[in-house]
Amino acid sequence: MTKGKILQAAINQYSLYSYHGATMRKIAQEVGIKPASIYFFYKNKESLFLDAFQKLLKDHLNQMKEILEDVHDEPILSIFEALLKGTVDYHKKHEAETNVYISLVTSPPKEIHQTLLEHIQTFDKWMTHSLLELIRRDKPEIDEAHSQKLIKQFSVILDGVFWEIKLYNDQELKQQIDEALYIMRVLMGGNEK
To answer: 85 to each of 80, 120, 176, how far by Cα in Å?
Structure first.
């Protein structure tokens, strides 16, 4: 489908050249169409990139939901591990999308700022709701306030691992995940060894 190819090319070009360097001409060349053909789908560059960014954010959220669905019946620490590893695997396999995501978070274009904020709030709400239910299931002795705090702490840890994806090699990332899981075990009142 041409529209899907245009969106992927927009993400690729943004990853390489940022917003101003990613021209309609370069996007069209990557897709193998004339620049004017893009205007059949999008009225301007801003609307194209807004749609591309929204697709990128939606794909990321759907991937996290899929990871959680796959391990839903596992113990909570295994779920934390799957989310950490799944985040790393997804972003390592989707380098252009990861570059764009990092760029959007560190310096969002004003046109995408509200969309990005809404995505992060949706993501946080989904994760809190999902993990709260699973913590209650596995650790009924942990009250809701403590459970909410654990989820926020996990989110901070997950964000930290995410920011290391572009810096560390696979072995170093594995060590970071091991350390993150150790921290979660301790926070949940588990054995420190």
So the answer is: 9, 20, 10
